[in-house]
Amino acid sequence: MDDTLPDDAWKDSFDKLLDRRPELRELNIIKKQVRASFNIDSSVENSNPDLLHISESSLHNPNFLDVGGDRFVNLKRKNGNSISTPCVKRVSTNLFHCALSPITSMKLDGLQTELVPKLSNNVKAEGRAIKHVCFEISSLENSDIQIVDDPIKNIDPQEEATGKRSRSSLVLQPGKWRKSLHTWRRTFQTDVVAPTVKVSSPRKRTTAEITRISGRKSTYLNESINLVISHEKEVLRYCEQRRPIRFDSAYAAVKMLDTCKIGEGVYGEVFKYMPKSNPSTTVVLKVIPIEGAELVNGEVQKTYEQILPEIIISQEMSNLRTNANNSTTGYVNIYNVALVMGKYPQHLLKLWEEYDTKKESENDHPEMFGNNQLFIVLELNFAGSDMSEFTFVNAEQSYYALQQIIFTLAVGEEAFQFEHRDLHWGNILIEETDKKHIDYKLNGKDLSLPTKGIRITIIDYTLSRVTVGDCCHYNDLSTDEELFTASGDYQYDIYCMMRDELNNDWSAYAPKTNVMWLSYVVAKLIDGVKYKNPKSQIHRTNLTKLKAFHKAVLRFSSASECANSFN
Ligand SMILES: Nc1ncnc2c1ncn2[C@@H]1O[C@H](COP(=O)(O)OP(=O)(O)OP(=O)(O)O)[C@@H](O)[C@H]1O
Q1: Backbone phi and psi for residue 101, each to the nearest 5 degrees, phi listed first
Q2: What is the largest CA-CA distance in the chain?
Q3: Which of 87, 108, 130, 404 could pair with 112 in a Cys bridge, judged by C-beta atoms 3.0 to 4.6 Å apart?
Q4: How far apart are the first and last CA of the chain?
Q5: Which residues line ligand 1 (CB under 6 A)?
Q6: How many A from CA of 123 to the centre of ligand 1?
């Protein structure tokens, strides 16, 4: 008697299902390119009935992307202005017959389902951060964007016939966009395939990555000036140092009180503390690794040349506090800039881990840095919480906050032809104040605004443009295609509006971009931020004013012109 097993005996039920549906294999084209993590928590997932809610017919829908294993992601979300909620799909409704399937839930990096909250603990255990990205299919009709290595094949025969292509576009969360954009890049770009574990072994830069961050530029307006400067020396000059100082001695635990990590960006970690020498001040440290070859948080480290303009802009905007003709305290106050070298101090590593435990950091563990790592440390004034988290008393308070933002931008324009270019609500900080008024000087004229109990501070000049002396510093976004395909919030329209305004020449001075961000800010104040007393009469009266401003704002050509209309 032949007691050998039949040929397909090794197959599990998922494999058998694929055999019956070869088109699923066709759809499974992206599998090689996703950064998939290996979550072997099948028991938990199998026990979650929420995972069974999509009909079998959805499998034929091109908007469902096979993310590997037996999970599918809905690429086409109806509600375009919210963050990712990948729909999870089981291929088989006969789950429990699938004994010990080796293909358990592989997750598409960057996608964390809100539909399956029970999974969140497993995600934590796995060490993956929750990232909010949703990938959509959108037609590129009328678009001149060339897509290279688009991993999503067009499976619509009609589109194939007309020669139109589909591509993945982005629906990003409002506010901080760099992280989610980066997640998308890692997922969809074939040359960037990194492991999903949090502390990845350091990886060298790819050409694409180097090109991507080389956007920061400084050009001399007078072309006869052709200085060859050492950016390292310039950085040291701004730091008032002759050489880098040791990280662990410059920021030793004994010098810092009540230290904690308060935030993070793609480029750095942000801590808060009170200096032992001056405990009445609260200082924020923004720690940015530079010049190293390893990717940090998936990004190429900035060079001296790329960090220099940010130091200059931060310093100059901060110095506007004491400017004779155009002054404001609306740009974050910078106490000091330091160039430090060496491993992260132990106490900061511990605080990093505490933050990670509570909030799940999306960044790489800073224990990855070695003895020769260089960092720029910006010591800033603590300026409160960002607008997305702040609760205003009522629209009167937010109406005056808006005026603070307008006057701050106006002063920046007049002093340095400043355009912020990324003024989303995560970059507007708000804190309470006892002061009744805030003073400005605009073109020599003194102005005073009621605070209504709050003070606003503008941060993050990564995309900003200024003219300082003979030099124009800006960030060249002309080749940054992904940012302009993002959607999900009015914020992402603003990047496209700026590009049109500037004719994609990012060195040009176009203060209208500040007005565009004002139109975004007022939209958020009308419908986005939180209010304590939204039913009061004063709230309704001022909401009407905000709405009137929203209608009119795009007629102004600059924040300065807008500020003058308030006088
Ligand atoms: N002066 C400050 N006071 C209070 N909080 C701050 C201050 N500076 C930064 N933060 C907090 O740290 C977070 C990250 O800071 P920041 O935006 O400057 O980093 P980033 O690396 O430029 O971020 P990304 O490049 O990802 O947008 C902010 O969103 C804010 O919550």
Answers
A1: -60, 130
A2: 103
A3: 130
A4: 100
A5: 176, 178-179, 262-263, 265-268, 270, 284, 286, 332, 380-383, 386, 426, 429, 459-460, 462
A6: 25
- pLDDT of res. 55: 33
Known binding positions for ATP: 286
* Among candidate residues 401, 391, 508, the one with its CA nearest the CA of residue 452: 401
Ligand 1, atom 20: closest residue by C-alpha: 265
In this structure, the number of other CB atoms found within 10 A of the CB of residue 267 comes to: 24
Residue 35, pLDDT > 70, answer: no
Distance of CA 460 from the midpoint of ligand 1 (Å): 7
ipTM of the predicted structure? 0.97
- The two three-digit tokens of residue 31, written as one number: 């599998």
Does the active-site annotation cover 66? no
C-beta of residue 442 within 8 angstroms of C-beta of residue 560: yes
In sequence order, which residues have a C-beta less than 8 Å from that of residue 193 and are 6 or more positions away? Answer: 33, 35, 186
Alpha-carbon distance of 45 to 39, in angstroms, equals 10
**Looking at ligand 1, which atom is closest to the CA of residue 263?**
12
pLDDT above 50: residue 446 = yes
∠ CA 184-187-188, rounded to 5°: 85
Q: Which residue has the tokens 């025969």?
A: 157
Within 10 A of 252 (CB to CB), how many other CB atoms are there? 14
Cα separation of 364 and 368, whole Å?
8
Q: Residue 366 above 90 pLDDT?
A: yes
- Is residue 174 classed exposed, middle or buried when 0-12, 13-18 and 19+ CB atoms within 10 A define those classes? buried
pLDDT range class, residue 85, cuts 50, 70, 90? very low
pTM score > 0.80 for this model?
A: no
Among 109, 356, 386, 422, the one annotated catalytic: 422
Tell me, in angstroms, the distance from the centre of ligand 1 to residue 480's CA: 22
What domains does the chain contain, in order, with CATH numbers? Answer: 7-197 (no CATH), 229-382 (3.30.200.20), 384-567 (1.10.510.10)
Residue of 183, 456, 459, 483 with the most ligand 1 atoms within 8 Å of its CB, for mutation: 459
Q: Atom 11, ligand 1: which residue's CA is nearest?
A: 263
CA of 174 to the centre of ligand 1 (A): 15
Q: Quick check: 234 pLDDT over 50?
A: yes
The alpha carbon of 127 and the centre of ligand 1 are apart by a number of angstroms equal to 23
Environment class of 71 (CB within 10 Å of its CB; exposed 0-12, middle 13-18, buried 19+)? buried
Rg over alpha carbons for the chain, rounded to the nearest Å, is: 26
DSSP 426: G
343: tokens are: 């491993």
